[in-house]
Amino acid sequence: MHLPGSKSISNRVLLLAGLCAGTTTLHGLLASDDTQVMLDALRALGCTIERSGDSARITGLAGRVAVPQAKLFLGNAGTAMRPLTAALAVLSATQGGEFELSGVARMHERPIGDLVDALRGLGCRIDELGQPGYPPLRVHGGTLDTTRPVRVRGDVSSQFLTALLLALPLAASESAVVVEVEGELISKPYIEITLNLLARFGIVIEREGWQRFTLAPRAAGGGYRSPGEIAVEGDASSASYFIALGAIAASDGRALRIEGVGLDSIQGDIRFVDAARAMGAQVSGGPGWLDVQRGRWPLRAIELDCNHIPDAAMTLAVMALFAEGTTRLTNIASWRVKETDRIAAMAAELRKLGAGVVEGADFIEITPPQTWHAAAISTYDDHRMAMCFSLASLNAITGAGPGLPARILDPRCVGKTFPDYFETLFSVAQADAAAIPVIAVDGPSASGKGTLAAALASALGYHYLDSGALYRAAALAARNAGVADDDRAAIARLAAMLDLRFERGATLLGGRDVTDALREEAVGVLASKISAWPEVRGALVALQLSFRRLPGLVADGRDMGTVVFKDAKLKVFLTASAAERAARRHKQLLAKGISANIESLRADLEARDARDRGRSVAPLEPAQDALLLDNSGLTIEASVEQVLAWWQERCPFR
Predict the structure, then answer these.
(1) Structure confidence at residue 221 (pLDDT)
(2) CA 453, CA 431: separation in Å to the nearest integer?
């Protein structure tokens, strides 16, 4: 698998490029919610940005205020909120301007008071527009005094120090500018990233231990200089989930190759490799790659001071479920002020799975479950909660019992740093096909089964199969190839080779959108004819079964529950009166500008029902264990709500 770009590096280099003179080209840039809010902010401040895939060309501000006023919405991105606050506070104090910075509700609960205090001590004017010590903020004017050291606490978040180090090169000063850290600096590897990237942009900072940082006078060579081009490493924090995956599941000589970050990474979270090795993983690597496989099994419980890997340490908490003994992770007080209170959230969700958990102000202890529980995992709008707990789905590997599912609630929160996380996970992890959930929706023509099934798939995040489209696609392929309508063998061969996909409401055949073509009358007539041929039905079964992919499938047709997916966890037989179905079809045709007679439509539907019920191959009938749903008087929303309620009853989540 290939990692997306590092969030920590991406947002730092975006801001640095935005503050530079000239144009900087960034390669391998992370595309995520956090980087998008930074890009939007830079545009609002006057930067010119050109995007192409994972690259961006940014023409910066040359350390000047180009837009005198702006209101910036920064979501829940601490890597945007803290540095932009500092940079704009310094700029407004030296050049004027007024800027407001806000975010989502959780961002307004994340502390920024220590950074505000440091900036006020420097002479910046900052108004707290809500709760003191928290965003939203307004920065406007002031008079900088860089003759005295700038003091900032280091024991709450390293982002406060990073913000100052990124902003202070904007302060014209004939003397050196000194930053002093009060208390123990946490998350030191993130400061190393900041210093490394500042050096790439021409800012060399001398440090005395982790307590004192000195910036050279502006006249002595201070000020940002663009490197021209810079490449963003893959995200080492995101690598932790796949390192854990390899440590747990890559056995029998198999290894998981991770590309985009290697043992030479500048990111502190690459030291997660050492922790994984301590738990039993076998990890090798080189520049830009890692290979991981299971070593010791079960994994070994560890006790670890996680100050150096605060984000990746969350992955260790879930790896602890697969370890022998009790794992203790300490020095993680910063978890309390992240996207959520991660110590409390982690403890609550681990307990759902059956783990024993002890939590404290700055530590957590995890003892593996004696009996695993299926669980619906709350993510608290925290991307790392979603990604960490996906690993709980590997519980069958422990041998403690049959595999139990884990449901991740609000999985889209991974968009903060790794939008394609689950697709990437499913590309390297396979499930027994019989364990992948299927909802089968059968019913007569015009019953609304396609609309219902598509809505269910969207609600659950599952794949969707319109089996009727397969027969229409086979008919369309036969007509396009000039195959005779009665050549059963040739049409069956075409059916077996169909390249059919359903994407965003469209049906693609061989990569071409055939949504409208499949609804042509001639295609429908031929599809109805060939759907009764055993040769064609047999050819399409394998294709239908191939749609059963993680995380699940909703399939609609006439024999999904009786023939194709006999083991479907939920089977629904959707019905409606012939009169109601004729009225629906009539309304659809009129909307397309096609005149139709409602009585003729009703007669046609009744005749088709009779043919479907009477055919010798897969006659239209409900499966014995199907639930009947007459939607004659129901809205689609009510029908979806009913089926989702039935689905919840069949799932083992409390």
Answers:
(1) 44
(2) 23
Backbone angles phi, psi at 202, to 5 degrees: 90, 10
544 part of a folded domain: no
Do 487 and 369 share a structural domain? Answer: no
Residue 629: per-residue pLDDT: 96
**Residue that is last in its domain, among 175, 207, 231:** 231
Confidence at residue 563, expressed as pLDDT on a 0 to 100 scale: 92
**CA–CA separation, 360 and 333 (whole Å):** 9
| Terminal-residue alpha carbon distance, the chain | 33
Task: For 167, list phi and psi in degrees, rounded to 5.
Answer: -90, -35
Could you give the CA distance from residue 184 to residue 213 in angstroms, rounded to a whole number? Answer: 14
Which portions of the chain are predicted below pLDDT 70?
Answer: 218-222, 616-617, 654
pLDDT of residue 220: 39
Dihedral (Cα; 221, 222, 228, 229), 10-degree rounding? 120
Q: Please give the positions annotated as active site.
A: 311
Determine which helix (DSSP H) or strand (DSSP E) holds 181, and give its type and residue range: strand 177-182
- How buried is residue 485: exposed, middle or buried, by Cβ count under 10 Å (0-12/13-18/19+)? middle
For strand 438-442 and strand 570-575, is the pairing parallel, antiparallel, or unpaired?
parallel
Helices 521-530 and 488-496 meet at what angle, rounded to 10? 100
pLDDT digits (tens, 9 = 90+) for 199-209: 999 998 999 99
Please give the residue range of the domain that contains residue 630.
437-462+551-654
- The answer to whether residues 203 and 243 belong to one domain is no
pLDDT number for residue 219: 44
